[in-house]
Amino acid sequence: MAHLDLPYRRRRTAHCARHGISLLEVLMATVLLLGAVMALSRLAFLARRHATNAEDQTQSQLLCHNLMQEIVLGVRPAEDVSPTSFAGEEWVYSIDVEPVEGASLSCVTVRVARLDDESTSLPTADEMGGFQLVRWLRTGQSQSSSPADLRHLRGEANP
Length: 159
Fold this sequence. Notes:
It contains 3 helices and 4 strands; from the N terminus they run ααββββα. By secondary structure, the protein is an alpha+beta fold. It is rod-shaped, with a radius of gyration of 35 Å.
């Protein structure tokens, strides 16, 4: 019986040695797992930053459209406004009005941007980023453009 028992033990010990996990395999799996976690956390950080930027861009567009509609409806005068904070002091806007000579038109530009957390002063109109909306508005007494105004805009000579 001792002779039959010996090969059985050899097969069993050789078979059991193959089922164990070595320390090297555990370390390699840990390194791969940590690398994947680091890559996914960086990806999540970038996604959050881009989502915040998209929210800011959407909010600046809405505020800019609201300001332009206030000007068009006459609630707010169509005049130059240097960068001014509004909407809870988080946002800054400016309005530039450039009249067109010889025509009853003005080019109205409204800019809206979010204030940086680090900034202590308002940016100048040239430093403002954010969203910009340009619209041509009729000015003066006449509500309709005369043919002379349209010829002037096209660069044609007056008859």
